[in-house]
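This section describes the prediction task in plain terms. A model, or a person checking by hand, is given the sequence of a single protein chain and must write out its three-dimensional structure as a string of tokens. No templates, partner chains or ligands are provided. The sample shown here is typical of the held-out split.
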Amino acid sequence: MATLKDLSRQQELFSGGHRLCAGCGIPPIVRLVLRAANGPVVATTATGCLEVGTTIYPYTAWRVPWIHSAFENAAATISGAESAYKALRKRGALPGGDREIKFVAFGGDGGTYDIGLQALSGALERGHNFLYICYDNGAYMNTGIQRSSATPFYSSTTTSPAGQVIPGKKQWRKDLTRIVVAHDIPYAAQTSPHNWSDLSKKAEKALKIQGPTFMNVMSPCPLGWYTKSEDSIKLAKLSVDTCYWPLYEVENGVLKINYKPREKKPLVEWLKPQGRFKHLFKPENAGLLEEFQDRVDAEWQRLLDLEGKRL
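The expected answer:
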């Protein structure tokens, strides 16, 4: 695996000067993934924060061949590009010679968990050779902070506003990583931008594997989380230390937990700095906090029980 010094010496494939918000978790995710490719790479991005913030005409932050996909079809687009590459390579008609090219698709939780799930599922089932990165910020942040199926329990959004009628989103978030694993692909993982080593190692491994691979990455959003920009990386770390967002990988069907907190922090340490959860700290909502904590504890224990086993 490349060291931090090695990574710093590589060419920057994702430039500064983009329009993504200060404190956004997406830029470090994209930079680390593209560096992990360590060679030619083609990328596509579903409509969302990453797309609109990096390609405002006539400017682009991408220093690799890049395709804008619609909200729902990033996985279909990258699988088509990968298929064309294989066909050209087989015929000896690949421009620039017989080069090994990597293919990466990026999508937010809205464009992955929800609108793009059918395209992703199809591409995984067909076995295309690509890496799909979901940057999960827990809502449709680009279009007004509407709930998605990745939105956390009891989070207040513009379409699940906490008030007298409902206490925020009442449904537990979809476990997309488990759904992807059920496709029996060779590699899937969860990671976070606060741990550059874990993220880089997983991206490097995923890009070396033949076949479809997937990474679900925690992506703090100061705008939609109602947090301070400078706290994003700290909050990403807290999501892991509270076990809300465990770091694990499933390689050839076998689950491995990559990080176990020595002292698991209470969930309130992650929730309290976020304005989207402020209603949970009213005295009358103490039971909701307890319910949230109990569910996180149960999910963490389930993961511990599955470690080392073939799923």
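For orientation: The first strand starts at residue 41 and ends at 45.
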